[in-house]
Specification:
12 helices; 7-stranded parallel beta sheet
C-alpha cells in the first residue's frame, strides 16, 4: 500500500502536529507500507526517515500555499491508496486544489486547535482566503477523519458545524518503541536538582497552551513545598515573554527553560521527570 503523508509542519520545525507526522512515518514504514512525505523544505530531516520518499516544497511566507499548488501539478495523487492530511495547512491546500477523487482517499488529522483557528476565532487572513470553506469541504469529502484523542473528537463535534461523529476515528499517536533508551542519566548534574523533584513540560511555549495558569499554580505549590523544579522543554512565541516574567518574579532558580531539544534527546528529560505536566486552552 502506498501512503502519502502531507504535513506542512515537520520536525525539527513546529510542534505537536509535526511530531505526529514524524511518528506516522516511522510506524507505517515499520509496518511495511511505502511512505511518501510532502512537506516544506528544510536544511535536514531525521536520519530515521531514510526509507521515506520526501518531497520538499519551497516555503514562501504569506503565500506558502502557492508553491504547494505548483508542486502538486507534478505529483500523481492517483498512485496513493491513502493520503493523510496531518495539519490544517495541508487540509486547506487539499480542499482548495485536490480533485474529488483524491479527496475521497484523504484522512485529515485533528490535533487540538482546529475549532478555534478555523471556525470560532479565525485570523483575518484565514477569513480572506475562506479557510473554513475549503477545510469543511475536506471533512465532508474525506474517507475518514482522525482525532488524536477522544477528547479532541468530542471537542470538534461540540464546537464546529461538523456533525458526522461516525466518520471521526480516535487514533492515539503514542511513541516509537526506540524512543526511550537504556542509557543512565545523571539528572542531578544535568539539571542542578539539589534534591528537588522534577515537573516536566514538553511543548511549544505559547500562551494558549495554558502556561500562565500553570505558572500561577506552580508558584502556589512552592509556597507549600519548595522541593520542586519546573523544567520546560520547547520553543515558541511566548517563550521570551514568559522568561522575562519568571526573571522579574525571581523564579529563575525554580523554572528552567531548556529551549528546543532534538527529538532523539528528549528521552533524557522524561527519564529525569517525576511528573509530566501539560495544559491546553
Amino acid at each position: 500500500m502506498k501512503i502519502l503523508i502531507f504535513s506542512h509542519e515537520f520536525p525539527p520545525r513546529g510542534g505537536g502536529a509535526g511530531s505526529v507526522a514524524y511518528q506516522y512515518c516511522l510506524s507505517l514504514i515499520k509496518e511495511g507500507y511505502l511512505v511518501t512525505l510532502l512537506t516544506r523544505s528544510q536544511s535536514h530531516f531525521p536520519d530515521e526517515l531514510r526509507d521515506v520518499n520526501i518531497i520538499e516544497v519551497k516555503y514562501i511566507p504569506k503565500i506558502w500555499f502557492l508553491p504547494y499548488f505548483f508542486r502538486l501539478k507534478n505529483i500523481d495523487l492517483e498512485k496513493f491508496d491513502v493520503i493523510i492530511l496531518n495539519d490544517i495547512a495541508s487540509g486547506y491546500i487539499a480542499g482548495r486544489f485536490f480533485k474529488d477523487k483524491a479527496l475521497e482517499k484523504c484522512m485529515p488529522v485533528l490535533h487540538g486547535s482546529e475549532p478555534e483557528n478555523i471556525f470560532i476565532a479565525p485570523s483575518k487572513w484565514f477569513r480572506v482566503v475562506n479557510f473554513d470553506k475549503y477545510y469543511f469541504k475536506v471533512l465532508n469529502k474525506s474517507k475518514n477523519i482522525i482525532a488524536v484523542s477522544l477528547y479532541m473528537k468530542e471537542k470538534f463535534l461540540d464546537e464546529t458545524p461538523f456533525e458526522d461523529s461516525k466518520k471521526i476515528k480516535v487514533v492515539y499517536s503514542g511513541l516509537s518503541s526506540n524512543f526511550f533508551k537504556e542509557t543512565q542519566i545523571d539528572c542531578n548534574h544535568a539539571l542542578d536538582l539539589q534534591g528537588r523533584e522534577v515537573i516536566l513540560t514538553v511543548s511549544r511555549v505559547e500562551k494558549m497552551k495554558g502556561f500562565l495558569d500553570m505558572y500561577t499554580v506552580f508558584k502556589k505549590l512552592l509556597k507549600i513545598d519548595k522541593g520542586y523544579i519546573w523544567v520546560i522543554v520547547g520553543d515558541g512565541g511566548f517563550k521570551k515573554e514568559f522568561e522575562r516574567l519568571v526573571g522579574m518574579d525571581g523564579m529563575g532558580s525554580s523554572i528552567i527553560f531548556k529551549g528546543a531539544v532534538p527529538r532523539v534527546e528528549l528521552y533524557k528529560y522524561y527519564k529525569c521527570a517525576d511528573v509530566f505536566w501539560l495544559l491546553s486552552k
